[in-house]
Amino acid sequence: MTHQPPPYTPKTLAKRWGCSVSHVYDLIHRGELDHFRLGAKLYRIPVDAVERFECGWQNTEANSAPSGTRTGDAFAVRLARMT
């Protein structure tokens, strides 16, 4: 039997990504981040859903044209630190 890593909470995922908890909730509510619920109010995000979402970030950044701002660069550095 393989051991599945525990799912993220919105708070732990926000810490991993260096963003606000409300941003994680926004992604959940917009349907952009796969999740499941424990009861009525508790959200959990499976590790594989996080990995798929992060791969989408990398693909988006690789295919986007330079915007002239450093925001994309800072985000890429933060994402690289997470992996």
Write the layout of secondary structure elements.
Elements: H1 10-17, H2 21-29, E1 36-38, E2 42-44, H3 47-63, H4 71-82
Helix pairs in contact: 1-2
What does this structure look like?
- This protein has helices at 10-17, 21-29, 47-63, 71-82; strands at residues 36-38, 42-44.
- The chain has four helices and two strands.
- A two-stranded antiparallel sheet has the order 1-2.
- β1 and β2 (42-44) form a beta hairpin.
- The chain starts with 9 loop residues before the first helix and ends with a helix.
- With 83 residues, the protein is mainly alpha-helical.
- It has one domain (10-82).
Secondary structure tally, helices: 4
List the strand order in the largest sheet.
Answer: 1-2
Strand content: 5-15%
Give a short account of the largest sheet.
Answer: 2 strands, antiparallel
Computed CA radius of gyration, to the nearest angstrom: 14 Å
Low-pLDDT windows of residues:
65-71
First-residue to last-residue Cα separation? 26 Å
Number of individual domains:
1
- In N-to-C order, the SSE pattern is HHEEHH
State the share of residues found in helices, binned by percent: 55-70%
Q: Count the strands?
A: 2
Q: What would you call the structural class?
A: mainly alpha
Shape: globular
